[in-house]
Amino acid sequence: xxxxxxxxxxxxxxxxxxxxxxxxxxxxxxxxxxxxxxxxxxxxxxxxxxxxxxxxxxxxxxxxxxxxxxxxxxx
Length: 75
Hints:
Elements: H1 5-27, H2 33-55, H3 59-66, H4 70-74
Keywords: Membrane, Transmembrane, Transmembrane helix
C-alpha cells in the first residue's frame, strides 16, 4: 500500500526534523563521543514524544492522510 501525497509530505517533514536535530548536535564541539550519542538520542526521544503528542488528537485526519489506522502509524 503506497502512501498518499500528504502522507509522504508529512513523513518527509518528520524525517527532516530528525536530520536537522542530528546536524545541530553533530556540528557542536564536544569532547566525549558518548556525550554526543546520549544528547542526540535524548533529543530524538523528545522529538518523537512531541510528534506523538501532536498527532494523538488528530486520529481521523491521520487515517485520511496515511490511509492506515492511527496505531499502525503511531507505533
